[in-house]
């Protein structure tokens, strides 16, 4: 044991090169020391936080430290982070939440710029050594250094656009000056991260090294032996105003498709900045600060910051030890196969079984295609496929810590599966159903261990939708539920605790939204107009297209079940929907539903033309209210009935499971902003015009307080 400890003592410094271990001058968040070659190693380790972010206190202390470093006669300066997770995750947005004065933000941003400029103006070579994530303000800090060295596996990005902002600490002018301006603008406009291989190809970093070579790479950079990154704007045709204007027009058109200006102003403001001031650093800096400050106090950014904190709140529910290492998935259809693929990608050992061997083969093929797109190294792709094991006999049941059932949405089918597998399960294993709507009280009948039975309701597509409803019933143990929450955290998913009830939370609220769309279609409103009304409100897609994606058969099944089991007033299911399902026109998966689709599942071109045709009547606000307010009414009912515990869980669940207009901050937050009394009055008006299904729920009184 003593030998083992001594070995680790010897190897410990190699885990992460942070400069001299002796002679450090510590501050609260930063520490620094000069090594034997006269290079100062400046290390960020934010106190009291698991992740490095740039708070005002961190930036103020950096200013002090840089002044001290200037007096040391150093040959070079290295900036590193001590947190294992990464370099810097960006600015601490807690500093800006709820701020309403753009002038105050502008003053704070000017001070922050002065500090970053001080780093950029140091006369010595400066090197940012980056491991893990380097995002937002962290990347802007790195861009202020003369050299950037990436440790293999690092990732870089500007996610500000996802918060309704654009870079505000120099990124808008330093990145386009460093790399190809179109690539720079693409990074900032999309918020996508780039990994080490692409970062090197772009010229964002000068070198990519393994951790054990960091010290030598730093020496080379300080000694001037590292080739500088490729030039960006300077000397290119995009340095000319006319060329920028042409490129800007294309960028605006692309931005409008995904982020309409009336809902998401930040991408359009960023394009304006670049078009107007690209190539003029001083003008760009001044305009960047002003634009960032105005955006930050705007409703979109404040609501998107709320969404960020909703995500953080749900992530906290996924903390803890799940004890799940092996997962067995029953059902290799779209949902089951994709659940299995995702779990394997996140490090779980997964066995996948189905009565149809072809279904398993198809699921593995889809998984391989997904890994090719999303996993960044051939080793990661190979390992994920190795962890995903076809299991034709169901042998994985006996070894699994968690068994997930994802077969047909019929109670009798699911109960037959449970009857066959429960005798083969481990004594402490959890049995989870992926049912989207069936109450667990119905499914638990005859189970020998109802305390270890619960719901894990994933949403389609599994690889993109972050939320998982963790469904409890009155016989489920707290231990099993805690493990299920932690399992969601293990696979990078957001657990939303809900109680067993028909449709749970999300599908119960989504169904009246979809059924009202069917009713409007039945009344003769064109499907394109219905979808346009929802998209004008801010939904990522309209309810008709969404129904096709979910599957008209599933919509029909859920609507019938909810109508049968609940007292919620709802329109009758239209006869044409029943006939379409009976004919096999079940939506995108069948190639035809309410729209027609090509072999890749995309809307056929003639459908797109019809949807954009000038003859189609224009959507209006009443159409949007008819669609959205029944959803809000149902969410309030779920809150009143105790299906879900609080408004934050409601809002987070609907955003991360359905894509509910993120810039509105969540459906109940939207209701509060609009005015609860106004929503109730509008519901009563709709009730008078269209029927009892719009009657305001008694739960609205709870929100008035």
TrEMBL record:
Pathway: Lipid metabolism; fatty acid beta-oxidation
Catalytic reaction annotation: a (3S)-3-hydroxyacyl-CoA + NAD(+) = a 3-oxoacyl-CoA + NADH + H(+)
Entry-linked InterPro entries: 3-OHacyl-CoA_DH_CS, 3-OHacyl-CoA_DH_NAD-bd, 3HC_DH_C, 6-PGluconate_DH-like_C_sf, ClpP/crotonase-like_dom_sf, Enoyl-CoA_hydra/iso, FA_oxidation_alpha_subunit, NAD(P)-bd_dom_sf
Domain 3-hydroxyacyl-CoA dehydrogenase C-terminal, chain residue ranges per copy: 503-597
A Pfam family the protein falls into: 3HCDH
UniProt EC number: 4.2.1.17
Record protein name field: enoyl-CoA hydratase
Organism: Chelativorans salis
